[in-house]
Amino acid sequence: MSISQSVDAPLTLRNNLTIGGALSTQNGTGTGSLTLAAKRLLEDNKWVELDLSVGDGVVFGLKHFRTLTRRIFGTGTLQFHFTNSGIHTGVETTFAMQLDEHTMGYLTYKAGVQSSMTSSIAHNTENAHVGAALTLGIPHCFISLNYAYNFKEQKLKLRTALKAGTFGAMFEY
């Protein structure tokens, strides 16, 4: 089970502050984090964000977004995770392309403690989300499928997911 909440506070037309928190539990063990993020809009097609998160250690991150063409954008993230065992760094780069009005394709490369290359596709409509991804990584390679449906009148979201790979298979509902 997991719960997350965030509040956006626009400071100016170009500056935004976000405060968020997340709690999750699995098999009787709980984790949580508190995040503070400051975003600055540099131009209409690019922004930069500084993140500070406290939970399982302290995480400091720097994120950059840039629109490359009308249908393609990219993001880059650099993270420093401070734990009792030392500092762990991570880099993530994503390129995304709008394939049609409701469908996006993504290519993501992660380097760090768990390196991977992921190709994914997501189709969103007003009531539903369908996604599929193929991840080639260290230590695990897997394929994942997910589906979510929104019941607007009841303010309810129904989700299901399937993952299968080198770690076995997992079904969530």
UniProtKB/TrEMBL annotation:
InterPro entries in alphabetical order: DNAJC11-like_beta-barrel (IPR055225), Mito_inner_membrane_organizer (IPR052243)
GO BP terms: cristae formation
Highest taxon listed in the record's lineage: Eukaryota
Ranges for domain DNAJC11-like beta-barrel: 1-170
GO cellular component terms, A-Z: mitochondrion
Any one Pfam family match given in the protein's UniProt record, by short name: DNAJC11_beta-barrel
Record-linked PANTHER family: DNAJ HOMOLOG SUBFAMILY C MEMBER 11
Protein name: DNAJC11-like beta-barrel domain-containing protein
